[in-house]
């Protein structure tokens, strides 16, 4: 297995940061985060402050994948908006330093919730955290992309048509075994695609509670992380992705809410979350939501297929976890198919 992207040449990193970060003072040590399947991410410790380094993995990469340069750009652009992001400090595109491009950002001190069940919180806090999820998502979709310099961050045209073509191609390139449900889902999505309604906004692409950092002793979001899949697209894609995740079983692997008594825990129903989001955005109703939900299942299946392929080839950030994630590919495909044919 190629482990070069799983460790850091600390001497090289420290030498580079001394030259490019005015406030940087060593000595430096690093610890790799267990999360961050796609782009290896490290906590950098120094006597005065902590940083986070996020890099591309090594090995042969699919075109447009692992674009840390885009992650850096979008978060920097959002720094003056109502969307909370970590402070971007430096982007290095010189592969000679550590073997790949990377960027440095501020370490956001807060707490992270792996699962939406939020079992460590009380009833009211759970409600407030999930409400914050809806609020931040609405704020993201209200960002004026022209004003923040992101109008060229993604192509124009029908977002779902574009994304279906992209992820179908990526899935076929990384396929490890035939999945009939996935083939059927790709075909049905093509034939049932709604007309473009003209909505065009910044989309996160992987909007989940485990990609958010919250206050240690509160329910406000301090930073939205992991922007690798962000682009200019249709806002309902992000919203549907949240609902999709909640259809999965609870626990470390599924990280969903299937079978959970949400009312008892203080968690909203799917429709209540959608309604809250619509209220924050000033929308009345979302038509044909089942298409957007089915598309989200398809897209996640394609993404996880890529994670599985990297595990098979020895390039996954966490190979064991990547193999487990790969087992969900047929599950997501089947759920997407069932959503469309209801």
Automatic annotation (TrEMBL):
<feature type="domain" description="Aminoglycoside phosphotransferase">
    <location>
        <begin position="30"/>
        <end position="252"/>
    </location>
</feature>
<dbReference type="InterPro" id="IPR052898">
    <property type="entry name" value="ACAD10-like"/>
</dbReference>
<dbReference type="InterPro" id="IPR041726">
    <property type="entry name" value="ACAD10_11_N"/>
</dbReference>
<dbReference type="Pfam" id="PF01636">
    <property type="entry name" value="APH"/>
</dbReference>
<dbReference type="GO" id="GO:0016740">
    <property type="term" value="F:transferase activity"/>
</dbReference>
<dbReference type="InterPro" id="IPR011009">
    <property type="entry name" value="Kinase-like_dom_sf"/>
</dbReference>
<keyword id="KW-0808">Transferase</keyword>
<protein>
    <submittedName>
        <fullName>Phosphotransferase</fullName>
    </submittedName>
</protein>
<dbReference type="InterPro" id="IPR002575">
    <property type="entry name" value="Aminoglycoside_PTrfase"/>
</dbReference>
């Amino acid at each position: 297995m190629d482990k070069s992207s799983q460790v850091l040449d600390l001497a090289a990193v420290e030498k580079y940061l001394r030259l490019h970060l005015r406030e940087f003072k060593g000595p430096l040590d690093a610890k790799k985060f267990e999360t961050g399947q796609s782009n290896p991410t490290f906590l950098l410790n120094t006597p005065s402050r902590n940083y986070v380094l996020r890099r591309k993995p090594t090995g042969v990469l699919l075109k447009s994948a692992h674009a840390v340069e885009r992650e850096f750009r979008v978060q920097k652009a959002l720094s003056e908006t109502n969307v909370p992001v970590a402070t971007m400090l430096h982007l290095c595109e010189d592969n000679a330093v550590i073997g790949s491009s990377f960027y440095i950002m501020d370490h956001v001190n807060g707490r992270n919730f792996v699962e939406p069940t939020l079992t460590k919180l009380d009833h009211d806090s759970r409600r407030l955290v999930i409400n914050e999820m809806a609020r931040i998502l609405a704020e993201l979709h209200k960002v004026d992309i022209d004003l923040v310099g992101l109008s060229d961050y993604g192509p124009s045209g029908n977002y779902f048509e574009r994304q279906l073509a992209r992820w179908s191609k990526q899935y076929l390139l990384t396929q490890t075994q035939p999945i009939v449900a996935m083939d059927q889902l790709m075909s049905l999505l093509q034939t049932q695609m709604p007309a473009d309604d003209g909505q065009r906004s910044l989309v996160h692409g992987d909007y989940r509670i485990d990609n958010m950092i919250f206050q240690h002793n509160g329910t406000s979001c301090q930073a939205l992380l992991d922007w690798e899949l962000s682009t200019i697209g249709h806002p309902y894609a992000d919203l549907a992705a949240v609902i999709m995740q909640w259809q999965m079983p609870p626990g470390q692997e599924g990280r969903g809410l299937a079978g959970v008594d949400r009312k008892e825990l203080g968690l909203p129903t799917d429709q209540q979350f959608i309604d809250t989001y619509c209220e924050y955005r000033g929308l009345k109703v979302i038509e044909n939501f089942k298409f957007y939900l089915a598309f989200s299942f398809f897209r996640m299946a394609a993404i996880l297929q890529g994670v599985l392929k990297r595990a098979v080839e020895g390039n996954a950030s966490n190979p064991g976890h990547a193999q487990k994630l790969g087992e969900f590919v047929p599950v997501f495909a089947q759920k997407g198919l069932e959503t469309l044919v209801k």
